[in-house]
Amino acid sequence: MIAPPFYGLHRGIREGRVRTAVLCGGRGSTKSSFASIEVILYLLGHPQAHAVVLRRVKATLRTSVYAQVRWAIAALSLERYFDCSVSPMRIVYRPTGQTILFFGLDDPGKLKSLKVPFGHVGVLWFEELDQFAGPEEIRNAEQSVLRGGRQTLVLKSFNPPASPRSWANRYAREEKDGQTVHRSTYLDVPRGWLGERFFEEAEHLKRTNELAYRHEYLGEAVGSGSAVFENVRAQRLDDAQVAGFARVFRGLDWGYYPDPFAYNECCYDAARRTLYLFGEITARRLGNLQTAELVRARGRTEVITADSAEPKSVSDYRSFGLPCVAAKKGPGSVEHGMKWLQSLAAIVIDPVRCPDTLREFLEYEYERDRSGELTGRYPDIGNHHIDAVRYAMEGVSTRRTAKVSSR
């Protein structure tokens, strides 16, 4: 009933280890099929629980999630146990009276007055998560619906929007206790489930428009062609990997408020042209002494290369006993450092250790002019950790350029 990539997630839900599942995937990834089956299975396993299924717009319910849940009931050969109606739109499990209710959030008042005949709402499914207004709307819906009951399950399924800046893409990058982010594609699904025509269409788009293929079928946030960094990879780094980094580089960008103080730790694998980012500090409204204590608490002793625009701050750090030097900068240093970062085979960023750094690198885009055309210039906004990384790697990037120029 479910595709192989979902087996582990299904077990996690069944055993109560997964309380929230964020399901990301492109066309044919079967994420909605999986969600609808889990809704039914949850009710069967929890006789006091009811289900609520949400979409942003009420008018889309009947032909999408309502039809999908009816498909799940049929796939499980349980039609004789369920009564389905569209006015009101609900599905009732006859043996217990448990209900599956369907709502659009274009009428949020319906959720606030929601009452179930007994027990509690145990499972909540948001379909097409990215179409909702944002995380606040999601939180409000959860607070309205999930009242009572010791155990609940929340499912959130969507096709990732093209822009990494989309709130839904940001949401899927967050690490939370009890939440699992699951990604799947049509390539993970048994071929017979989708049919040959589906695969032919996918392959045609792959040949004719690879960017659209990656977005529509692979569920990648490919951007709109304005992304500065296309070599970023989010990857968890365990303690053993970090401890094994032979040489660590440190950099920081001064800030107070609203611009933050930004500090980073990284390691460069020259053989593979890969930069690993595994440490960050982001702070606001803290003076030099306070940020210095945060840096000292990291327990590292390598030289820190800092923005030279604040020589007093560099001097302060030295007086606090930290090995801090000013970045050399100079004409063209920003363009040089950025191009060096762009030229790397990969910039690997740990999403748990460096969430702010990952967000900056993924969302940083070229400036546009008044007509919306790309200018090729790097905007001086939303780049604090990017600058800290540039400063940290200044010696490596300039040395590499010098070698190339001398050949």
What's the total helix number?
16
CATH class of the largest domain: Alpha Beta
Give the neighbour order of strands across the main sheet: 3-4-5-2-6-7-1-8
Distance between the termini: 61 Å
Largest sheet descriptor: 8 strands, mixed
Could you give me the name of the CATH homologous superfamily of the largest domain? P-loop containing nucleotide triphosphate hydrolases
Total of domains: 2
Shape: elongated
- Quick check: average pLDDT? 93
The CATH architecture designation of the largest domain is 3-Layer(aba) Sandwich
Question: In CATH terms, what is the fold-level topology of the largest domain?
Answer: Rossmann fold
Sum this structure up briefly.
This protein is of the alpha/beta class and 407 residues long. It has 16 helices and 15 strands. It has 2 domains: 4-216, 3-Layer(aba) Sandwich (Rossmann fold), CATH 3.40.50.300; 232-406, 2-Layer Sandwich (Nucleotidyltransferase, domain 5), CATH 3.30.420.
Structure description:
- There is one protein chain.
- By secondary structure, the protein is of the alpha/beta class.
- It has 2 domains: 4-216, 3-Layer(aba) Sandwich (Rossmann fold); 232-406, Nucleotidyltransferase, domain 5 (2-Layer Sandwich), CATH 3.30.420.280.
- The protein is 36% helix and 21% strand.
- It contains 16 helices and 15 strands.
- The protein has helices spanning 7-14, 31-45, 62-75, 109-112, 135-145, 167-173, 191-194, 196-208, 210-216, 239-243, 288-296, 311-319, 333-343, 355-363, 384-392, 394-406; strands at residues 20-25, 49-55, 82-86, 89-93, 98-104, 120-127, 153-158, 179-184, 232-234, 249-253, 261-269, 274-283, 304-306, 324-326, 346-349.
- The strands form 2 sheets. Strands 3-4-5-2-6-7-1-8 form an 8-stranded mixed beta sheet, sandwiched between helices. A 7-stranded mixed beta sheet has the order 9-15-12-11-10-13-14, with helices on both faces.
- A hairpin with a 4-residue loop joins strand 4 (89-93) and strand 5 (98-104).
- Helix 2 (31-45) crosses helix 3 and helix 8 packs across helix 9.
- The longest helix is centred in the first third of the chain and has 15 residues, at 31-45.
- The model is unreliable at 401-407 (pLDDT under 50).
